[in-house]
């Protein structure tokens, strides 16, 4: 096994409203907002920061064709229905396209980024 150069310290999401997106992810993942401004916010998730960054003329990614999607997050859960209910209550919307809703659910965060709730990854 190679010695790592470092560890993943943060994941950044482009958006038009960093505060709203940070509040959504803090509520969904149980994190704490540790940096908050109109330009950038950071949600502390243990040893990882989820950073929300204001981008001029932000265009939400499209699901399922992926334009201009760069990546998506998979959130490990034990109960899909409960996780979906809670993320919808926090501000997510459910994607129309659901390839395998018994194993994962595709949702969109408040900035339009697709993410999945899944029982395929140990929670």
Question: What are the defining features of this structure?
Answer:
single chain; 123 residues; alpha/beta; 2,3-Dihydroxybiphenyl 1,2-Dioxygenase, domain 1; four-stranded mixed beta sheet
What report would you give on this structure?
The radius of gyration is 15 Å and the shape is globular. It is built from 2 helices and 8 strands. The mean pLDDT is 88. The strands form 2 sheets. Strands 1-4-3-2 form a 4-stranded mixed β-sheet, with helices on one face. Strands 5-8-7-6 form a 4-stranded mixed β-sheet, covered by helices on one side. The protein has helices spanning 18-29, 80-90; strands at residues 10-15, 32-36, 40-45, 48-54, 73-76, 93-94, 104-108, 114-118. It has 123 residues and is an alpha/beta fold. The two termini are 25 Å apart. The protein has one domain (10-118): 2,3-Dihydroxybiphenyl 1,2-Dioxygenase, domain 1, CATH 3.10.180.10.
DSSP strand count: 8
Task: Report the order of strands and helices.
Answer: EHEEEEHEEE
Query: Could you name the CATH class?
Result: Alpha Beta
Sequence of strands across the biggest β-sheet: 1-4-3-2
Mean pLDDT: 88
**Uncertain spans, ≥5 residues at pLDDT below 50?**
none
The portion of residues forming beta strands comes to: 25-35%
| Largest sheet features | 4 strands, mixed
Question: Structurally, how many domains make up the residues?
Answer: 1
CATH topology: 2,3-Dihydroxybiphenyl 1,2-Dioxygenase, domain 1
Structural class determined from secondary elements? alpha/beta
* CATH hierarchy: architecture: Roll
How many individual helices? 2
The helix content, as a percent range, equals 10-25%
The 3D shape can be described as: globular
Rounded to an integer in angstroms, the radius of gyration calculated over CA atoms is 15 Å
Distance between the termini: 25 Å
CATH superfamily: 2,3-Dihydroxybiphenyl 1,2-Dioxygenase, domain 1
